[in-house]
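Design a sequence for this backbone.
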């Protein structure tokens, strides 16, 4: 049960990070809310894995560092998606 709640919380945090990242990257209108949230969740997970690997740390779900990591991962992934799809 605990893992399911963490998973749901990561989806919410990733969705919020994706929305913030879409505002930073100015892709909120061109890519749509759904794709931004999906990319945000994936970017948050990838960002968490990268930080865990590089810093040998376990980013906490509800910490400023964990949230910033989620936003950075989302921004990077949105930039990659934007470059691959050619959207402005």
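Sequence:
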């Amino acid at each position: 049960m605990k893992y399911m709640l963490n998973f749901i919380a990561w989806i919410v945090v990733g969705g919020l990070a994706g929305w913030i990242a879409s505002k930073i990257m100015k892709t909120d209108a061109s890519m749509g809310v759904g794709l931004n949230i999906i990319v945000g969740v994936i970017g948050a997970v990838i960002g968490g894995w990268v930080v865990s690997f590089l810093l040998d740390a376990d980013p906490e779900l509800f910490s400023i560092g964990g949230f910033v990591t989620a936003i950075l991962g989302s921004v990077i992934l949105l930039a990659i998606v934007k470059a691959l799809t050619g959207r402005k």
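The mean pLDDT is 77.
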